[in-house]
């Protein structure tokens, strides 16, 4: 992989450490893009942390953020920081029940969905193509079974129109980002067989911020595969 990769999103400068196929890293990049904040993605890996990454993320988890002298790890913490610093457009609902529900959806994404999403993607695609690991179909299939009740539950929560909680919010970004990572290793019928979820994901992925982040993510993923291929020649 290249040592650093630059993303320029919007107008204002800050650094995000991580790799964009991570659901948590993508979540933060999409939030920055939605708010028109200029973000530089500095490629970082927990396995070989740079001093800058370690300073921002003491437990080597990605993403972490550096904004001037201020550093912060954790996607949800960064989401709160960005929403407070750049309130337009707001991504945390004001109304108490909507706020609570958006936080629950964020938590649902970050714990219940994420573990399976990462196992599916890592064992089928990301580990083999980026780290040269053997595919582990058993682990991926186990994760697919584990995530099925969560996706079935989500299908019941998704409205026919609009967004997960009142207006478009952190809830949509966090959950869609997890499913996006999952699709790196998933037969797409796993999602298309859930029509409300599929239609909602299409609404999310058509947003300009998502298109921008996804295009850069695909380019960076391909570049990392090519760079790994050259190193192993
Ligand atoms: N709660 C954290 C979770 C971050 C996280 O688990 N990131 C993964 C990558 S997807 C990671 O850095 N794992 C490294 C490790 O576990 O050593 C967040 O929301 O940012």
From TrEMBL:
Key words of the record: Transferase
- Which is one Pfam family of this protein? GST_C
The record's listing under InterPro entries reads: Glutathione-S-Trfase_C-like (IPR010987), Glutathione-S-Trfase_C_sf (IPR036282), Glutathione_S-Trfase (IPR040079), Glutathione_S-Trfase_N (IPR004045), GST_C (IPR004046), Thioredoxin-like_sf (IPR036249)
Using the UniProt record, name the top-level EC class of this enzyme in a single word: transferase
The GST C-terminal domain extends over: 95-226
Cellular component aspect of the GO annotation: cytoplasm
UniProt xrefs under PANTHER family: GLUTATHIONE S-TRANSFERASE RHO
Name listed for the protein in its UniProt record: glutathione transferase
Biological source species: Alteraurantiacibacter aquimixticola
């Amino acid at each position: 992989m290249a040592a650093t990769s630059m993303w320029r999103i919007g107008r204002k400068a800050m650094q995000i450490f991580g790799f964009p196929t991570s659901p948590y890293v993508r979540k933060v990049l999409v939030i920055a893009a939605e708010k028109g904040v200029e973000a530089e993605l500095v490629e970082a890996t927990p396995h070989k942390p740079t001093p800058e990454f370690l300073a921002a993320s003491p437990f080597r988890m990605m993403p972490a953020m550096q904004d001037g002298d201020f550093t912060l790890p954790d996607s949800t913490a960064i989401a709160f920081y960005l929403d407070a610093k750049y309130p337009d457009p707001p991504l945390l609902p004001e109304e108490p029940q909507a706020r609570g529900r958006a936080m629950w959806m964020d938590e649902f994404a970050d714990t219940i969905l994420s573990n399976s999403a990462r196992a599916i993607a890592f064992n089928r695609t990301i580990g083999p193509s980026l780290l040269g690991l053997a595919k582990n179909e058993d682990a991926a299939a186990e994760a697919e079974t584990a995530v099925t009740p969560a996706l079935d539950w989500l299908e019941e929560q998704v409205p026919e129109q609009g967004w997960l909680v009142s207006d478009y919010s952190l809830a949509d970004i966090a959950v869609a980002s997890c499913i996006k990572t999952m699709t790196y290793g998933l037969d797409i019928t796993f999602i298309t067989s859930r029509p409300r979820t599929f239609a909602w994901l299409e609404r999310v992925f058509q947003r300009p911020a998502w298109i921008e982040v996804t295009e850069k993510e695909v380019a960076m993923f391909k570049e990392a595969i090519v760079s790994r291929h050259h190193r192993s020649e």
